[in-house]
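User:
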Amino acid sequence: MPGKGKHRRPRTSPITRGFIAAGTGGAAIAIPLIGATGAHAAAPSVAPERGVSAAHTAATQTAKQAATAKTVKTYSVTAGDYLAKIAETQKVSGGWQKLYADNREAVGDNPSLIHPGLKLTIGAKAKASAESKAEAAPKKAAPKKKAAPAKPAPAEPAPQADATANEPAAQSADSGYTAPVDGATTTTPYRAAGGSWASGYHTGVDFAAASGTTVKSVGPGTVVSAGWAGSYGNEVVIKHDDGQYSQYGHLSSLSVSAGQRVAGGDQIGLSGSTGNSTGPHLHFEIRTGPSYGSDVDPLAYLREHGVSI
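Assistant: Predicted structure:
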């Protein structure tokens, strides 16, 4: 029968068509799908790595900030302090020069003029300076203008003229004694009478000295005290080898401490106007004991030791 003699095309199975599509034109579709699936599977492995890196960076920055905070502190100036002493006790790398540079705005133009209660920052700018050197080349600093020295002014009234006011102070090389300031002239003399002093008279002699002038020990001896002394401001008292005591008042800063041995001419501080004073000068006394009220003529004492004043 005709129907029996014909060969029928076998029906294609849906599964077969699916394989054909995948094996022919469907290949272009199958490969991207597999690639996309792989990409999505790989994504989670990258994200955690970035998260770990960010966390590590944040932890490192926090540790650095904590370390910096530990190295920075604030110091409050007390009576008798001076920058060299503070730098030594606080172990400031770079000494008093570095301490002054880090606190220039607080201290001002004169590093010798610091006062009790002044707040100094220790360690803050030192770290910043070290980091800046690694990141940028140093710039040449502009020359600083020198401040004009302050004009000396007598702190106490002088009811009578001093015959030695215009005679320069000199040092005796033979005796080891010297005047307390170089080239100084006296203003208010010893025993000048007046109501400005508790004893009714001037217990020492005043030397005209601009603020910041070097003050020297007049002879060899041992420092008895160095610090704040009320109306005398910052003062130094020295016991000399002959048993007499010298006292230096109204200093702006101190360079010695109690128990220290000094020679004639050694710097013990800088002149100023601390305590009960109306202007920069040096108040100088010679005493038979370490305390107020045992004064003797200071100029006569120096002349006995060969100092021409």
